[in-house]
Amino acid sequence: MKTLNIPEGYQVIMPYLIIENAQAFLHFTQNVFGAEEKHKTMRTETLIMHAEINIGGSCIMFADATEQFKVQTAGLFIYVDDCDIVYQKALDNGASKVMEPADQEYGRSAGVRDPFGNVWWITKA
Predict the structure, then answer these.
(1) Among 6, 38, 54, 80, which is least packed, fewest CB within 10 Å?
(2) CB–CB of 14/52 below 8 Å?
């Protein structure tokens, strides 16, 4: 396989979410997962054209939906230190229950739908 020239802090594959209220999504990920804002370009004073966050060394790119670029949400799997605490933080920040925390053969896991339509599968590392 050819060696790729991927910039530092990026992966071969990264989710790119197009959502309503991208600024609120940024705050949600910061409050729940400790996301670090890497980059943000505004389309208008209130609409994000392109933003990037880092969670545990992984980059998620996102933007506000427009007439040209419609909403595109995703299912995301995330390893955390404590599934139950992060699950509760997500609910406290507006997420809804998909699956309550439970012990699975692969670890303690839970699922939430964030207020923007993405489903997060939260699993203790």
Answers:
(1) 6
(2) no
Q: What pTM did the predictor assign?
A: 0.94
In a domain, 95, yes or no: yes
pLDDT per position as a tens digit, 43-76: 999 999 999 999 999 999 999 999 999 999 999 9
Are the beta carbons of 61 and 51 closer than 8 angstroms? Answer: yes
CB atoms within 10 A of CB 94: 16
Give the CATH number of the domain where residue 87 resides.
3.10.180.10
* Residue 65 and residue 50 in contact, taking contact as beta carbons nearer than 8 Å: no
Identify whether 119 is part of a domain. yes
DSSP for 28-94, written as a single string: HHHHHH--EEEEEEESSSS-EEEEEEEETTEEEEEEE--SSS--B--EEEEEES-HHHHHHHHHHTT
User: What's the CA gap between 20 and 92, in Å, rounded?
Assistant: 20
User: Is 52 part of a structural domain of the chain?
Assistant: yes
Closest CA to 55 of 72, 74, 38: 38
